Amino acid sequence: MKAGRAETHGTGEELHCLVLQLSRTGDVLQSLLALKAVKRLYPYVRFSVVARGEFADPFRKVGWIDSVYILDTASILAEASVSHSSARTALTEFVRPIAEREWDFVVDWTFSETSSWLSSLIPAKDRLGYARGSDLALRCADAWAQYVQAVLQGGCPQNIHVTDVLATQLLTVFQIRLGDPQPTGDEAVTGKDFFGETEPSAFASWMSPSLRWISIQLGASRDENAWLPGAWARLATRILEKHPDARIVLLGKKEDIPREKAFFSALGERESIGNRVQSLVGRTDFTAWTSVIGRSHWFFAAKTSAVHLAGLLGTRVMQIHPGDKTWRESGPYGNGHLILIPSDAKLGLRSIDPESVYASWSYCAGSSLLQRNVTLRDHFRKTGASAFFANSRLYQARIRDADAGGGVVYEAKSPYALTRDEWLASVHGHIARAWYCGWTPPLEAEFPREAVSPDLVRELRELRSTARELARLAEEGKRLSMELRELGQKLKSDRLMRIEDRNLAHERGRSVLERGEKIEKIAADRPEFTAFARMLRVMMHNLEGSRLHEMGYESALNFKQLEEGFRLLTDWADHTLSLTKLVSVGAGAAPAKGVDP
Amino acid sequence: MGQDTESRQRLNLVQAGSISEMEGTPILISEEEVSARMREDRDALLTGFLNALVVECTGEKA
After folding, report:
1. For the whole model, what pTM was predicted?
2. Which end of chain A, N or C, is surrounded by fewer C-beta atoms within 10 Å?
3. Interchain proximity A92–B56, CB inside 8 Å
């Protein structure tokens, strides 16, 4: 058993952590998974949450959340439409009981303007996420919050899953404040019992475990992210024709009822098919939704928060995703989930055909014997989907071992050419791990050689020379900031000083700012460096010192962090380019592990 | 003992932000002023919270 304060806390001392999660279902479910992972390691920390009523059910359903405070937005807005002061009174009444409790940690996982104000209204010993500074400007209370603001919310490509960002952020501060976590076995965080014992359900009677149940979520987070009902119907027909033990349950909200009608219309009137499809569209509350997905063997969906629910319940997911930048950071969490995206995001979901979804699913859900003896490409051909092999890419989720950095990764199952943004997503993720966890994977582990296209080689060569120039600017910024710090340390006062000292301080300060401006200017012309420019801006906004020497030192640390990032980027570019040199003529490159040749 | 108590009080006041340091000389602020400042801060935060909530939900300024 490891030494640390964990054992002391285990003797009875409890700590209280309040999490602000004012977002919608998808974010609520991802927060809940991160909290469960942290709770397992620090069981004596008691969690409470603030959520909006319509999205709070998942928090209410688990037994280990102490209090769920509901922010009743509708009633406060109704008050606000009458008078500002009555709305303020309502908000005061809402905040008072929360603020009167003693919190060891307040964690804003909403990362919004609104939540930042609420966070600062609640006294706490430690604060994470967004908050308000003494000047009432929005502040990031910790380094991961800076990454969220600059990179995730800035729309920059990165591949650390949101759930991993949240869990790591909280675990980092717990480890610093509370010591090493309690050792745990290999017990999975996700599973059918995530919400405790499932209530006796009306669905249990007909969802026989001897049959293979597949639930399909018809709608999506937005209309443009939904797959066409006709495509779902063709996929369902294919599955039911090929698998006599399969049964299908349709799920959706009330607004998905037109999709349900279109689905059945496209399904036709074949009795052997229609009899094996049940629809619960518009008829499930959270408990029923959970019950059905939990009893399903597979859950099929487009881009919707429901994939996170299936992930919590340990039900394998086949997600049909439009392939925008978000899929790596908010895909289904856990081992074995599948994601099918268009090979070009501009093509959208219409380029994904039911035949390719069926071929992907039947291959990965099939026996290991099948996967050993038949390639994915051949399987596509045999299932009549070879025409679609080039239009889509298949990925499979895997939880990485803790000693390899942990977290979920999505591994390519089909061949692909790595784009610049995909390359950047991986590299940004690794740079963040190096900055905040002190961990980077071995270089050779990341990119399969055959994924490196001539276009990428050309882009990386250009990128590498710019990264070196940026590293030099960051190094200068660091040196000048340290000079500013030394000057500040010599001064008896930041207000009263000799004219020559004042001029020198101005000159040094101006030089530091110029280096930052140059980095931003280069990033404006080269979007692949946008993440770094945004990080610098966010970090400089969050300087905490009030004295010249304090700000000089913090500024030096920020430039140092950026310089490290540029050097890591250059290392990754060097490594990726070196892969192309290793190919010997005539020998043929061996496919990467798990990737279809 | 008395000095300890005074030190502790000063520490608490510094943590509460009620002692400002200028040129190395601490300036004590009265308890009423501390309360008034805390009230002002809380009022400003509440106003910010309400405005942000209204903007987020309706797109209009409160």
Report:
1. 0.88
2. N
3. no
Residue % of chain A over a pLDDT of 90:
66
Q: Does A68 touch chain B (CB under 8 A)?
A: no
CA angle A472, A475, A479 (to 5 degrees): 140
Instruction: Give me the long-range contacts of A11-16 (CB less than 8 A, separation at least 24).
Output: A13/A44, A14/A44, A14/A45, A14/A46, A15/A42, A15/A44, A15/A45, A15/A46, A15/A104, A15/A105, A15/A178, A16/A45, A16/A46, A16/A48, A16/A66, A16/A101, A16/A102, A16/A103, A16/A104, A16/A105
Q: Is A345 on the interface with B (CB under 8 A)?
A: no
Task: Compute the nearest-CA separation of B49 from chain A (Å).
Answer: 5
Mapped onto helix, strand or coil, the DSSP state of residue A298 is strand
Question: Rounded to whole angstroms, how far apart are CA atoms A350 and A327?
Answer: 17
| Cβ atoms within 10 Å, residue A13 | 9
Which tokens in the block code for residue A185?
């076995």
ipTM value for the complex: 0.83
Chain A residue closest to B53 (CA)? Answer: A114
Residue A33 CA, chain-centre distance (Å), reads 12
Token couple for A354: 């039911």
Among the partner residues A95, A114, A120, nearest to B56 by beta-carbon distance: A114
Token digits of residue A416 = 């692909």
Judging contacts by C-beta atoms under 8 Å, the chain A residues touching residue B23 are 492-493
Distances (CA, A) of A53 to A56, A229, B50: 5, 31, 18
CB contact under 8 A, A132 and B52: no
Would you call A404 helix, strand, or coil by DSSP? helix
Binary contact (B50, A77; C-beta < 8 A):
no
Distance CA A34, CA A148 (A): 16
Q: How deeply is B62 buried, as exposed, middle or buried, from its count of CB atoms within 10 A (0-12, 13-18, 19+)?
A: middle
**Hey, what amino acid is at A189?**
V
Q: At what angle do helices B31-58 and A84-100 cross, to 10 degrees?
A: 110
CB contact under 8 A, B45 and A132: yes
Show residues of chain B in contact with A91, CB under 8 Å: 46, 49-50, 53
Q: Cα dist. A538→A132, A302, A432, A522, A562 in Å?
A: 14, 34, 15, 17, 12
DSSP for A103-143, please give it. Answer: EEEEEE-S-SHHHHHHHHHS-EEEEESEEE-TTS-EEESSH
Q: What's the gap in Å between the CA of B27 and the closest CA on chain A?
A: 16
Burial letters for A365-396: b for 16+ Cβ neighbours within 10 Å, e otherwise?
Answer: beeeeebeeeebeebbeebebbebbeebbbbb
**C-alpha pair distances (Å), B46 with each of A88, A94, A113, B53:** 7, 11, 13, 10
Q: Which of residues 26-55 of B touch A (CB under 8 A)?
A: 42, 44-50, 52-55
- B28 vs chain A: nearest CA distance in angstroms? 19
Q: What is the pLDDT of residues A94-126, one digit of tens each?
A: 999 999 999 999 999 999 999 999 999 999 999
Residues of A in contact with B62 (CB under 8 A): 80, 84, 87
A480 membership: H or E segment, kind and range: helix A454-490
* pLDDT value of position A257: 97
pLDDT tens per residue, range A203-246: 666 788 889 999 999 999 888 889 999 999 999 999 999 999 99
CA distance A362 to A373: 14
Between chain A and chain B, the number of residue pairs with CB atoms below 8 A apart is 54
